Amino acid sequence: MADKYDVIVVGAGPGGMTAALYAARANLNVLVLDRGPYGGQMNNTDAIDNYPGFTEIKGPELSQKMYDTLMKFEPDYKYGNVQTVALDGNEKVIKTDDDHEYRAPILIIATGSDHRHLGVPGEEEYSGKGVSYCAVCDAAFFKDEDVTVIGGGDSAIEEGIYLAQLAKSVTVVHRRDELRAQPTLQKRAFANKKMKFVWNAQTEEIVGDGNRVTSIKYRDKETGEEKELPTAGVFIYVGVLPQTAPFKELGILDDQGWIVTDDHMKTKVPGIFALGDVREKDLRQIANAVGEGSVAGQAAYNYYQDLKDRN
Ligand code: NAP
């Protein structure tokens, strides 16, 4: 037997929680499913200084506040690792890996993105043995050590600044000679005495002694020289990938796997909406995930009313 709802939101990051809040506040019967703790990537973020209303707030604290706001409107909230979504007339049939089936006329996808791997030798072998994708989770293991961050975007620089609070030094290894990160983060990083930068460097291997990471090998793209940088830890932030595997068969993804929507967060399948980092777009921020969540929640309500009027 399937559990039936008006709206199912998959993913309880800032966007998913906002969409659920708007739908539940509009009196729809809402289920939120997530395979991890609510908050999504906010849980792996130390300090957030670009979410209005808070001069600065810890990621887990903002997650808790958003969850508390959502739960005021009493949606169902369940653990669920979604495996497949199928269409049965107007209903979306959602199956999770623990063999639960949920049905609703409206599905809101807010599954976000995950860290891209670098794909060099040593990366998988030393994952958890010096290679990390989460500074907030693992920084404490590198107290007073020399660590390396690979990448030049917001994540690399933000997490590099965080690591510098504990590590002896943080070397940012970037493949170009300028950072992609927001100017305000760049300014803080360049002013940080513990942070160093290696430019035009293509990382080619993560080297270890069998137990732990000991160095990285990179190629200087200007001179072609192969170089080695001793390091106790390698934090990899080279971009993100969409978490859209369960939605592949719906025909709503672009060729990179991101979900395509219109301005109302509608996909081309009636009753399926998507928002936040999982969408095909340029800017991935908590603030715009929340904005898109409100749009999706309201659009879901409008869709529900239309459906009711037609039946
Ligand atoms: P990103 O913006 O895509 O940056 C990825 C970085 O990794 C770029 O500097 C890129 O180099 C580099 N890179 C990509 N592939 C590489 C490879 N194979 N080898 C070496 N370097 C490689 O990813 P992100 O920093 O994870 O951010 C993801 C999204 O979240 C962005 O929209 C970002 O703005 C947002 N975000 C925002 C905040 C905030 O507002 N505080 C914090 C974190 C993330 P190039 O520059 O040469 O392309």
TrEMBL record:
Keywords: Disulfide bond, FAD, Flavoprotein, NADP, Oxidoreductase, Redox-active center. It catalyses: [thioredoxin]-dithiol + NADP(+) = [thioredoxin]-disulfide + NADPH + H(+). It is an enzyme of class 1 (oxidoreductase). Residues 5-293 form the FAD/NAD(P)-binding domain. One of its GO terms (biological process) is removal of superoxide radicals. Its cofactor is FAD. GO terms for molecular function: thioredoxin-disulfide reductase (NADPH) activity. The keyword Disulfide bond applies. GO terms for cellular component: cytoplasm. This is Thioredoxin reductase. The lineage of its organism: Bacteria, Bacillati, Bacillota, Bacilli, Lactobacillales.
